[in-house]
Specification:
The chain is an alpha/beta fold and 413 residues long. It has 18 helices and 14 strands. Helices cover 46% and strands 18% of the residues. Helix 10 packs parallel to helix 12. It is elongated.
């Protein structure tokens, strides 16, 4: 092992010994999720891709590993008084579920706007849920105040050595199954997951590369490590990693052990999420798809290498998921909105429908607009949503409409 790396590992607040101990605590209580090779994604990217299905944990998130490890370390008095946590959802569910199993009272503060599925799942696990604060930072301040008032133990989502050690057990499992991995690609929010995994992986296999991935809208760790001042704002599909302030412990570990941090756009995250559903038949949230998004965005960088990707969570609102899939269909040219300005007289709609039918397009939705338009009184706006096989098929449909002297504008792309 490189002497400099050995020294760095010894000086970090979490060691391989801590992670191995955590694995013993988790044994029998947290699922050892499958780590499967994806033949199709490997063919598409040119890399050798392995997927760690943490979205198939009982709470659909890796977060319960760190939560259980932290809760197990409480004293009898701390257990009696209870715990409090602040989370946008996944940490909340992990704490709530394992606190209930250990008969520990739990209060969870969740920011306003947290996906409903995460709030309801947390309540279902038996925690007292308080919705407050417009951001995670505001919610954390509220939780800190309640913690002091009620003398509870605060369970931090990432900046805690026991939390980090619990998350690191994922890398133990991945390398035990596939020792030949060249790269681990891990989503980063506050940094708990990548910190634990980096300590375990770099100690076991110093040559392995650790790559972090953040959403472009929330590049907090990227800014810290690379000395940048990129803005953090907006609503990201990857709300699970939308963290403005990385942890002190996690930042120290990331700086020492993580080789690079990549940023992915919202469209790239949507694309990866859709791929995982259509190819792997598995549902992930935005953060869980971030690793694949990075590979799809730059396949040349990873070509020919064995990659371990963590599908970190699967808690996504079904309405949001539906929107993502529909938008992907539009990008692929399989779902399109056609707009026609036609004369308001019998037979005009029938003419459009006839051409579409003969072209093999499936009509999904039809809308007439006579009132809210700037067209002449004898004209009407006709909007038709159609389904086609692909972009080539869409192009042939448009060509057929134009051949029939029907003017059309194509939207949805």
């Amino acid at each position: 092992m490189n002497e400099t790396l050995t020294t760095s590992l010894e000086q970090l607040p979490v060691t391989l010994r801590d992670i191995v101990t955590a694995a013993g605590v988790l044994e029998g209580f947290v699922k050892r999720t499958s780590f499967e090779h994806s033949r199709t994604l490997s063919d598409i990217t040119g890399a050798n891709i392995w997927l760690k299905f943490e979205n198939l944990q009982f709470t659909a998130t890796f977060k319960e590993r760190g939560a259980l490890n932290r809760l197990s370390g409480l004293s009898a008095d701390e257990r009696r008084r209870g715990v409090i946590a602040c989370s946008a959802g996944n940490h909340a569910q992990g704490v709530a579920y394992h606190a209930a199993n250990l008969s520990i009272p739990a209060t969870i503060v969740m920011p306003v706007g947290t996906p409903t599925v995460k709030i309801e799942n947390t309540r279902r696990h038996g925690a007292d849920v308080i919705e407050g604060g417009a951001t995670l930072e505001e919610a954390a301040a509220l939780a800190t105040g309640i913690c002091r008032q009620q003398q509870l133990t605060f369970v931090h989502p990432y900046d805690d050595a026991l939390i980090v050690a619990g998350q690191g057990t994922i890398a133990l499992e991945m390398l035990a199954s596939v020792p030949e991995l060249d790269v681990l690609i891990v989503p980063i929010g506050g940094g708990g997951l990548i910190s634990g995994m980096a300590v375990a992986a770099k100690t076991i296999k110093p040559s392995i590369e650790i790559i972090g991935v953040q959403a472009t809208l929330y590049p907090s760790m990227y800014n810290l490590i690379k000395g940048q001042l990129l803005p953090m704002r907006g609503d990201t599909l990857a709300e699970g990693i939308a963290v403005k302030a990385p942890g002190r412990i996690t930042s120290q570990i990331v700086r020492a052990l993580v080789d690079d941090i990549l940023l992915v756009s919202e469209q790239q995250i949507e694309h990866a999420l859709s791929f995982l559903i259509t190819i792997e038949k598995t549902v992930t949230e935005g953060a869980g798809a971030a690793g694949l998004a990075a590979v799809l965005a730059d396949p040349e960088r990873f070509k020919g290498r064995a990659l371990g990707l963590v599908l970190s969570g699967g808690n996504i609102d079904t309405r949001l998921l539906s929107g993502v899939l529909t938008r992907q269909l539009a990008r692929e040219g399989r779902l399109s909105q056609l707009k026609f300005d036609i004369v308001d007289r019998p037979g005009q709609l029938g003419m459009v429908v006839e051409v579409l039918g003969k072209s093999g397009a499936n009509i999904v939705e039809v809308s007439h607009q006579r009132i809210f338009t700037d067209l002449p009184a004898k004209a009407v706006v006709l909007e038709v949503v159609i389904e086609t096989k692909d972009r080539s098929h869409l192009a042939s449909v448009i060509a057929a409409l134009k051949a029939a002297n029907i003017d059309v504008d194509v939207g949805g792309h």
